[in-house]
Amino acid sequence: MDTIARPFGLLLMFLYNITHNYLFAIVLFTVIVKLILMPFQMKSKKGMMRQQLLNPEIQEIQKKHAANQQKMNEEMQRVYREAGVSPMSGCLWSLLPFPILIALYQAIRKPLTVMMGVPKALVEVTKSGEAVGAIAKKLAEMGFDVRQLLQSQISATKFINDNFEAFSGLSDKLRPMNFTVFGLDLSSVPNFRIWTFDFSSFKALWPALGLFLIPVITAFFQWLSTKIATKLQKDLPGANVEALEKQSNSMMMLLLGPVMSLWFAFVLPAAMGVYWMVNALFSILVDVFLTKLYSKTMLADFAEKEAARKAREAELEAKRAEAERRRAESDNLQTENTSKKKQQQKKKQEAAGRALEYQRALNPDAGEKYNPSRVGDRPFARGRGYDPDRYSFNGMDGSVADTSSIDEELDEAVKEKLRKAAETEIKPETDKDGTAAEAQSDKENDL
Questions:
Q1: Which H or E run contains 185?
Q2: Which of 66, 113, 187, 231 would bridge with 154, disulfide CB 3.0–4.6 Å?
Q3: Directed axis angle between helix 251-267 and helix 270-332, to 10°?
Q4: Are 72 and 61 in contact, with CB atoms under 8 Å apart?
Q5: HSE, side-chain direction, 13 A CA sphere, residue 437
Q6: 48-52, 121-125, 302-306, 359-363: which has the highest mean pLDDT?
Q7: Cα–Cα–Cα angle for 179, 183, 184, nearest 5°?
Q8: Taking the domains of the chain in order of start, what are their residue ranges?
Q9: Helix (H) or strand (E) holding 289
Q10: Which of the residue ranges 79-88, 121-130, 241-250, 326-335 has the most confident prediction, judged by mean pLDDT?
């Protein structure tokens, strides 16, 4: 871990040598790290803003394919791919500060080996607390508890700074370093037990109270950063205002970052709290600047995409209406391309309609039910639908219609046809004695 933290320690030591002020060195270190990470933050911010502008289209896909999760995911991935947006683009930026924070903590905790570059062999101490290195032996000779080197080098660095002439010849890497700025020892861990502070005078109170205020101010800046980021998101077009309102009103989301910052600042040296505080302040400024910068160009892109989306919806709606109209026409129109199955089905429906109308004409009280033996193009087939009483025109209640009047009409029709046939028959010539006339008279009498 010291190898990874070494570049950060060299940078921090370089800034301290320039400013000769530990506080200013921490602030400049934070600004430089922020500038180095600026391209990543810009890319992340642009991706998040583009993703937010796609919210209307994403919500439409979620409603359209709510029953098909796989199809919904495929459509969402297609939209993100066409827009050049990665849903995970914001995660990289959120993870980058943590390795830097750990590396900075190593540099602050081990100023001798990580910041100054003193060889580890010179400060080596066994686990039992026996000094092995030259610097460690010198510290033990002067009454310093070298077991502290196993945990941190801050106390040893302070002791060497107070007695620098005695240690300067042991290594050319050693440099005097003062952690106290404006009466505050930034290498100390802040004390949250405010009731134990010395309130007798401001001079006695300030060293403890100043360190106590660093975590408090850090937590405040973290909370302010969350509020401003939510406010900027609400002002963008396509923002899910309802979800953002729930997020901003959620106590867990609102207090998670500030509480974590407060806790870390109270358990780590005050220099870490200063870094976190300055980093949160610059994050707010950069977030506001990037939002104003990208919103000008993205608003035009969003308006263009929104117009294209609405035009596409209108086109799809027109195609849907046209398909419905054609489907309605095809139900009543038979062409050469109409399948035999549809033709047969249509014929069956027409036959069923004619049978129903015929039954209503014969027996109006029968209702909507019709005789199944009369349905279709084979009314006289003796198949499974054959009904021996199909000519009796049964009603729904089982009653049999009276057909006597129909039979009488048929008998009268037959007699009338026979009479007309007899009258139009060619009469034979009669002889003088009237034989033919008598035969014709006998035939009429038989009828």
A1: strand 184-185
A2: 187
A3: 160
A4: yes
A5: 5
A6: 121-125
A7: 55
A8: 179-331, 348-390
A9: helix 270-332
A10: 121-130
